[in-house]
Amino acid sequence: xxxxxxxxxxxxxxxxxxxxxxxxxxxxxxxxxxxxxxxxxxxxxxxxxxxxxxxxxxxxxxxxxxxxxxxxxxxxxxxxxxxxxxxxxxxxxxxxxxxxxxxxxxxxxxxxxxxxxxxxxxxxxxxxxxxxxxxxxxxxxxxxxxxxxxxxxxxxxxxxxxxxxxxxxxxxxxxxxxxxxxxxxxxxxxxxxxxxxxxxxxxxxxxxxxxxxxxxxxxxxxxxxxxxxxxxxxxxxxxxxxxxxxxxxxxxxxxxxxxxxxxxxxxxxxxxxxxxxxxxxxxxxxxxxxxxxxxxxxxxxxxxxxxxxxxxxxxxxxxxxxxxxxxxxxxxxxxxxxxxxxxxxxxxxxxxxxxxxxxxxxxxxxxxxxxxxxxxxxxxxxx
Length: 383
Hints:
Elements: H1 5-15, E1 19-23, H2 29-44, E2 50-52, H3 56-61, E3 71-73, E4 80-86, E5 93-101, E6 104-111, E7 121-128, E8 132-136, H4 146-150, H5 154-157, E9 160-164, E10 175-178, H6 185-196, H7 203-217, H8 227-238, H9 243-251, H10 256-267, E11 270-272, E12 277-282, H11 284-290, H12 297-307, E13 313-321, E14 324-331, H13 334-343, E15 348-350, E16 353-359, H14 363-382
Parallel strand pairs: 1-2, 1-8, 2-3, 8-9, 9-10, 12-13
Antiparallel strand pairs: 4-7, 5-6, 11-12, 13-14, 14-16, 15-16
Helix pairs in contact: 2-7, 6-7, 6-8, 7-8, 7-9, 10-11, 10-12
């Protein structure tokens, strides 16, 4: 009888001595909360755990009130050893020393006999120091960005646990915890831990997971707020999660420059009722006058989305250079986002946002170009 994914997950983590958790370069708060909760859970089992993402410090600052794992990495430096092996059947080594000489790291060997045959040497990679990998919020391994590009071997040498809610997920893991009906990855993990090891859900773990569910459902206001999501949230509160603390931290402590930029962006909003489309151009003057930064724009887009309940597609755009305008797009229709992503070779999915640039010398020109590309997809989605 084959084991359930829950049992497979439990057995693999139990056997593992040092799991590695991966996030995409632009994870959602739900993804971050899920990763932090799993890190805390694995550390509670008495094991080492490492959390890795391209922009790790920026990523973790999104949920600064949640405890971090002891080790976080933005690159997998030192993730494995390489072995320089020498066959001593014919000639023993009496001494070894090393030295850094300029850009070269040299190994000096003293043989028992006068010469060394190069054919007695071999160079082999050792095992990674990580023995399991958990990937959160990535429909495919390539979405992990530079970490995957620089370290493809690890994704084929250690067992993979794939946790996601996307219908586009390629089920690339040995264990796939993919539920397209779940409100969030945090809900998937909360249910998993509740079914398998409920006594290990500490207050910090519960708080991280509740923060993830609340972020993904916008405090239980979005359509993905299902009875299952509410049940998971209630269970986490029962484990000690402080809902009011999460609300205060997530929604009531926004910096003033961000709020000013949000107000300026709202004053420029265009509403396309036919296509349920919100367009929000942001000028350089808006950024200067509000003293905000371009990295605040994704949060502004999220706030604009929360301000217009009738809209289904939202685009915020700004002049990133004299000849280029950057677009940040969110849409309730994830299938359309994936189609747009496929049609725009230079686009990238950053969490729940599709980001891409259009050649344009002004925001007005960029809006015209955007409409010509976007409206056919919106018309097709409505058909």
